[in-house]
Amino acid sequence: MADQTYPIPGSFDATPSRGAAMLEWLHSWVVTVDHKKLGILYILYALVFLLVAGAEAMAIRIQLAVPHNHFLSPELYNEFLTMHGTTMVFLVGMTIIFGFGNYLVPLMIGARDMAFPRLNAFSFWMTAFGGLLLYYSFIGGFGLYGMGNAPDVTWWAYAPLTAKAFTPGHNTDYWALALIVMGFGTLGAAINTLATAFSMRCRGMTLLRMPLFVWLMVVTSGLTLITITPLTAAQVMLILDRYLGAHFFDAQAGGAPIVWMHFFWIFGHPEVYVLILPAFGIASEIIPVFSRKAIFGYPAMVAASVGIAFVSTTVWAHHMFTVGMTSVSNTFFVLSTMMVGVPTSIKIFNWIATMWGGKIRFTTPMLFCIAFVFQFLCAGLTGIMLSIAPWDWQLHNSYFVIAHFHYTLTGSFVFCMFAALYYWYPKMTGRMLSEKLGKWHFWLFLIGFHVTFDTMHFLGILGMPRSIYTYEPDRGWTTLNSIVSAGAFIQAIAVLILAWNLISSYLHGEKAGNDPWDAWTLEWATPSPPPAYNFAEDQVVRSRRPLWDLKHPNDPDWKYER
Amino acid sequence: MRAFSLIRCGLAFVSLACAAGLPAAAQGPQTTPSTWAPVSTPAHEIYGLSLFVLLITGAIFAVVAGLLVFVIIRFRERESDAKHEPAQIYGSVQVELAWTVIPILIVVVLFLTTARIIFAIQDEPKPQSALDVTVIGHQFWWEFRYPKLNVVTANELHVPLSTHRDPEPTYLRLLSADVDHSFWVPQLAGKTDLIPNHPNEMWMDPQKPGLYLGQCAQFCGIEHAKMLIRVYVDTPQEFDEWVKEQQQPAVDDPAVAAGRHIFESEACANCHTILGTSAHGTFGPDLTHLMSRSTIAAGAAANTPDNLRAWIHDPNTFKPGVLMPAMQLSDQETNEVVAYLATLH
Amino acid sequence: MSTLPIFADEEWRLPSRGRVAMLSLIVGESAIFTIFVVAYIYYIGRSTYGPTPRILEVPIFNTICLLSSSLTILLAEHAIKLGRMRTFGLWWAITILLGLEFIGGTAIEWHKMIFVDGLSIRTNLFGTTFYSLVGLHATHVVIGLIGLSLIMLFTLLGRVEQRHAERIQVFSLYWHFVDAVWVVVFTVVYIVGR
After folding, report:
1. Phi, psi at residue A155, to the nearest 5°?
2. In terms of C-beta density within 10 A (0-12 exposed, 13-18 middle, 19 or more buried), how is residue B22 classed?
3. Which residues 114-173 in chain C show a CB within 8 A of chain A?
4. A332 contacts on B by Cβ (under 8 Å)
5. What pLDDT is stored for residue B24 in this prediction?
6. Are the beta carbons of A300 and B217 separated by less than 8 Å?
7. Which pLDDT value is given to residue B28?
8. Residue B323: other Cβ atoms inside 10 A
9. A residues 394-433 near B, CB within 8 Å?
10. How many CB pairs under 8 A join A and B?
11. Do C47 and A254 touch (CB under 8 A)?
12. Looking at domain C25-43+57-192, does it have CATH number 1.20.120.80?
């Protein structure tokens, strides 16, 4: 560290006590503007809320394991349901992607920090406090049914259920206000990422030499700008309706509840792409390293990412196939939704092509990435099924949809985030995570995931709708529900193993060194963990894999890249 | 590594087997509202389409997952050659083009098939013989009105059988009295939402008599889970009998006049209608022919005197948070009201 | 890991981070405004009762002032680029005055609509969509005025110099955006919607 004390003859020992040193250390984390510390704060925040939202999911699955269960009251169930979804999307998903983005983007482009370090800190704390406001709702007030005021209108909060007339308590208000606050944080992080990637690249790093993870963070940030903002707008309208007597969604005054649906899904659909695009970036970094080959088709991957971002803004009403749009409208959204499958499948093929002819090392991050490719394929195919509007008229709002989006969110997004943790933890902490515990985590989570979510598809086919706190015993859903719930327990154990690994490896893990994986992007050119200034000298690059060029001076990439 | 790939193959096989065995399982006990046991044209069309789509997606899955499994087995790093990096291949324009064009072609095929079915179901011209029913969604029960037949009932829908020789489809007009709901009886048709100030329409033409189950499929509040639907598909004769019965005013049995009097003078009449009495409330279900239904509280409980008693005493017994208040009647009064209601066939 | 010999003399130019950030902010804000504009357009003519857009008086003078302020701020940008600090201060002050006139004029317009015509945000759909859309824009004007005033203060204190020209340009982008939004809002509310 930079502080040094020079001993003065005759002076007393001014070394701070352990308590004071501890406080100093904590304080440095609170006031930091260093992108690495903020990145770690985002990731830790996400992991804590992963456990919280996971607990909410466990409660839901216990309640649904048998029909007519009394583990959760209807009110508490609806609160847990809403909070599980809202927490996972906003407090876990959005935070962890900007966590990894914050940590890695400056390192990968050879920069000293993000473009606006203070904005960075502001964004994190807005996000963090917004999340705390959301959770305060559980204890803030008695609530209508004595269960606190946590939001209970599902995470999509349709009007007019959210009108003051139908939800007089404060549940909806916490939902809207907390997310508006967090939205400001997200907007700041997105702006910062764009400014950093465009304006702070090291010499020689043209846009088409940026690591794919940086590209995907750029595309994600651009998409975020036009995704989060419609939600903010809609939530402002909701609050105006509830408190200033406005009529945006008031059917009696001529307003249209369907307008809320449009606005929400104009946010909601691109939002899931905001979540998955960084996961694509993570896979695009990890798969090449553990296949020992460059990514296949870099320009195509960039084009596909941009294409996905654009097309994803045109598909929103596939969440609304059952609201009574005209056949022409329905048909349009079928087409646009299917179109988004084309660039997405290109990516899957490119990952497989990267592995083709390689030398695959089955480290824990690679295991998670391979499972990700398989599960994302399945998720894409069930997505195609849901894009078939008539079939969606049956499957919409059923457990088939829940299975589909958990395949994309848990099976794809979370698997990639786990891969990222195992891959970059050594860089962030200087220690390797235990491979043995990592493999236990992987296999248990994989099995639990499939037990739960494969089974869930069938529940949807058999007619079970979502958002119900219980179901009738004569519907034939009981056995399948019990299986689904059993899988949840297996996943819970796996996540606890991860938590244990994160902590014990920090204390006792094997030392990592600069470049434990023999990788090729700039972050591996720094010590682990990197010093505050990242790079001692300004970097100059000539290809997409600067470290490959250094390790293979007779066969550098810049001879072959287009 | 072998264990890993074996488990992968195993999982894939099991999933496929389940999918294949599902149509059989889907016939299930009669009360399973399976989307793969259709009895009405819209549900049949969707089922057929779904099998076609499954075929295509199954083929895609087999090819791509197969490739992935092949790659991770064939190209895994072996001890002997850990020293040298493999040949670095950066891309190939032809290959990229190939796997762009093929998915686009698949999309075109799927899209055209889908479009045809959308128009077939949504824009089907309405025949003269169609039966009209207006469905009004409430928190947390269903109101059914037959405008041309002067029938009003709740939660349990009766529709006539429709055959190819004698088509008599039922057209539902969907309205909402409060928040969003969705009418879903999987064996009869896909779901359609009920949105305030936004009337929707759907149709069904059930070809097998029987009882078909469904429930509300759009979260509408605390008791969304207990807003169940029962659809009875009657033979033409059964249907006519049912209609005639429903068109009568309420049974007026002097033996239970005490109960009727309580009903009319207490707050019951503010929310409920019983044709032929002075109760004209519309906030709650029409009770004129309560005993013609097999459940109460939109399917939350069986229609028995004991359940009626418990419901009137405190509706939160079956549906905590429901909008009907506990009626604060004495035991004596409750018994009399239940006795009265029990005569309303 | 640093010096590869190829790029020593070639120029390495990157866009200014302030400009990228401001443009990104503008993209995000445009999305918010788009949602309110869409709501406005969708609800034209759908109020079931209450005052209609016929009560609107087209705010020509306000609009001229606000749009001219884009010109005056451009002149200020030009002045500071050339180092003419007094000219810069002058044009900057006029920009603020024009912006203040716009806000004042809006206040007078709203006063009339609320107390004479009886239209508030809760009256009907027209009131809801009008006040929310125009109000959102006015809020952005106010934020812009606060920023403009802060810079005016620093200028008067002698803290702003020629080398800050680029930052002034970045800030002005925001003001130009606010004016551009007014063109859209004005067209939708006072021309199309009436």
Report:
1. -75, -10
2. middle
3. 121-122, 124-125, 128-129, 132
4. none
5. 47
6. no
7. 44
8. 17
9. 394-398
10. 286
11. yes
12. yes
Q: Could you tell me which chain C residue has the CA closest to the CA of A244?
A: C122
- Chosen CATH of B131-247 out of 2.60.40.420, 3.40.390.10, 3.90.190.10, 2.60.40.10: 2.60.40.420
The CATH number for A30-559, chosen from 1.10.1740.10, 3.20.20.70, 1.10.10.10, 1.20.210.10, is 1.20.210.10
User: Minimal Cα distance from C28: which residue of A?
Assistant: A225
**C177: which chain A residues are within 8 Å (Cβ-Cβ)?**
none
CATH fold, domain B254-341, is Immunoglobulin-like (2.60.40)
- Give pLDDT tens digits for C63-108: 999 999 999 999 999 999 999 999 999 999 999 999 999 999 999 9
Query: Chains with ≥3 Cβ pairs under 8 A against B?
Result: A
Report strand pairing: B156-160 vs B192-194: unpaired
A229, closest residue in chain C (CA to CA): C32
Q: Are A515 and A547 in contact (CB under 8 A)?
A: yes
Looking at residue A189, what is its pLDDT? 98
Domain boundary assignment for chain A: 30-559
Where do the structural domains in chain C lie, given as residue ranges? 25-43+57-192
- Cβ–Cβ gap A229/C46 under 8 Å: no
Least CB–CB distance from C39: residue in A203, A226, A237: A237
Q: Is A150 exposed, middle or buried (0-12, 13-18, 19+ CB in 10 A)?
A: buried
CA-to-CA dists, residue C169 to A93, A341, C16, C66, C139, angstroms: 36, 42, 11, 18, 21
Show me where the domains of chain B are located: 2-77+88-122, 131-247, 254-341
Residue A513 has what pLDDT? 93
The Cα–Cα gap between B232 and B160 comes to 8
Record: contact C32-A233, CB cut-off 8 A? yes
Dump pLDDT digits (tens) for A481-514: 999 999 999 999 999 999 999 999 999 999 999 9
Facing residue for C17 by CB, picked from A200, A247, A266: A200
CB contact under 8 A, A299 and B91: yes
**Mutate which: A472, A517, A561, vs B, most B CBs within 10 A:** A472
Which among A200, A226, A252 has CB closest to C31? Answer: A226
Q: Closest-CA residue in chain A for B58?
A: A381
pLDDT the model gives residue B31: 86
Q: Is A483 on the interface with B (CB under 8 A)?
A: no
For chain B, residues with pLDDT lower than 70 are 1-29, 82
Secondary structure (3-state) at B138: strand
User: CATH number for the B2-77+88-122 domain, one of 3.30.70.120, 1.10.287.90, 3.40.225.10, 3.40.50.150?
Assistant: 1.10.287.90
| Residue B84 burial class via C-beta count within 10 angstroms: exposed 0-12, middle 13-18, buried 19 and up | exposed
Which ranges of chain A have pLDDT less than 70? 1-14, 562
Contact B61 A378 (CB under 8 A): yes
- Give the gap in angstroms from C-alpha B191 to the nearest C-alpha of chain A: 5
Question: How close, in Å, is residue A547 to chain C by CA atoms?
Answer: 8
With 0-12 CB in 10 A as exposed, 13-18 as middle and 19+ as buried, what is B73? Answer: middle
Give me the DSSP letters along A166-220: T--SSHHHHHHHHHHHHHHHHHHHHHHHHHHHHH-PPBT--GGGS-HHHHHHHHH
Query: B touches A (3+ CB pairs < 8 Å)?
Result: yes
- DSSP state string for A223-253: HHHHHHHHHHHHHHHHHHHHHS---TT-GGG
SS3 assignment, position C10: coil
- Whether the complex's predicted ipTM surpasses the cut of 0.90: yes
Q: A268 is written with which tokens? A: 């909601």
Nearest residue in B to A393, CA atom = B190
